[in-house]
Amino acid sequence: MKVLLVKPGEYAEEVEIDNRLSTLQKIVGGRIEIYSPNNDPVTYVLNEEGKLAELPRNRAIYNQNGNIVDIIHGNFLVCGVGEEDFVSLSPELMAKYKAIFLEPEIFVYVEGRLNAVKSKPSISEQIKSGAKEAEKHNTDRPASPHKGEKDRS
Q1: Over 117-146, what HEC string results?
Q2: H or E segment to which residue 93 belongs
């Protein structure tokens, strides 16, 4: 199923996973908890003990007034909801939630109040993200040597 994977400090990304409990638990790093944010046919699958285990803060959840009502800790997935199970997100819902969660957030206290600020991933995360994107487009040919290097194959 196609879902949105959201990791702390990284851009959210569309991934394809199998719909097994063991897969979901591996991605979130423990027992899963389900959080349904609104009336959309989506649910967030997150680590049940993310806050207690002090996993890194990931993304804030906001109410209609734009105030933070909760913070998700650790990796989480945004999945579609079917009759009895999780399903792929529709293209429309994938686009909507990718727009909501695309950019990482950092959390800072200002005047005693915790605030979330959109940020860019670290340089290493940007490089890793760029490498993943390059792999998608260059799967049929090996990497060529850098200019001035000999091919040692």
Answers
A1: EECCCCHHHHHHHHHHHHHHHCCCCCCCCC
A2: helix 91-101
Q: Are 49 and 28 in contact (CB under 8 A)?
A: no
Of 91, 88, 11, nearest in space to 43 by CA = 88
Cβ contact 7:29 at 8 Å: no
CA proximity to 116, closest of 48, 75, 52, 67: 67
Extract the tokens encoding 84. 């009895």
Cβ-Cβ contacts under 8 Å for 65 (sequence gap 6 or more)? none
Give this prediction's pTM: 0.78
- Amino acid at the residue 148: G
Query: What Cα–Cα distance (Å) separates residue 119 from each residue in 33, 68, 72, 122?
Result: 26, 17, 16, 9
Quick: pLDDT tens for 34-86: 999 888 999 999 999 999 999 999 999 998 898 899 999 999 999 999 988 99
- What pairs with residue 42 in β-bridges? 80
**Cβ neighbours of residue 80 closer than 8 Å, sequence gap 6 or more:** 1, 3, 41, 42, 86, 87, 88, 89, 90, 93
